[in-house]
Design goal:
- It is globular and about 40 Å long.
- Strands 1, 2, 3, 4 and 5 form a five-stranded antiparallel beta sheet that branches.
- It has one domain: 2-Layer Sandwich (Alpha-Beta Plaits), CATH 3.30.70.560.
- With 133 residues, the protein is α+β, with helices and mostly antiparallel strands.
Length: 133
């Protein structure tokens, strides 16, 4: 089992409910245990289309034996199940799930980079992440 940190964001629909449902679906993943959930913060969107709504953001500390690329696929399925559709880059979304760290692994894959390449440049990620470290 590996300790992982995930980022969660939502700026469409019932944002708080979207985050809570995503956490519940992550809790239901096999071979995965949610150890800690941060508080939820509200932030302005960074990048993407103008005039999109504010985001709610949180972070999770989990323990899992799911390999990184498979975990990414499972998180993408959770996003789809909660109504996420691909639109413009950094556009509005019902839910966004990111793997921030996966143990001490450094991964450069066309579908996944760990640590998340923008984690240290995003206060909306760092603030909740500090709560679950």
């Amino acid at each position: 089992m590996v300790i992982c940190y995930l980022g969660i964001g939502s700026n469409l629909g019932n944002r708080r409910k979207n985050i809570k449902m995503a956490v519940e679906k992550i809790k239901a993943l096999e071979d995965t245990k949610v150890l800690k959930v941060s508080s939820i913060i509200e932030t302005e969107p960074e990048g993407g289309p103008v005039n999109q709504g504010k985001f709610l953001n949180a972070a999770l500390k989990i323990k899992t034996s799911i390999p990184p690329l498979l975990l990414l696929r499972r998180l993408k399925k959770i996003e789809e199940s909660l109504g996420r559709t691909k639109t413009v880059r950094y556009g509005p979304r019902t839910i966004d799930l990111d793997i921030l760290f996966y143990g001490d692994k450094i991964i450069y894959h066309r579908d996944l980079t760990i640590p998340h390449p923008k984690v240290f440049n995003r206060p909306f990620v760092i603030r909740p992440l500090l709560e679950v470290l």
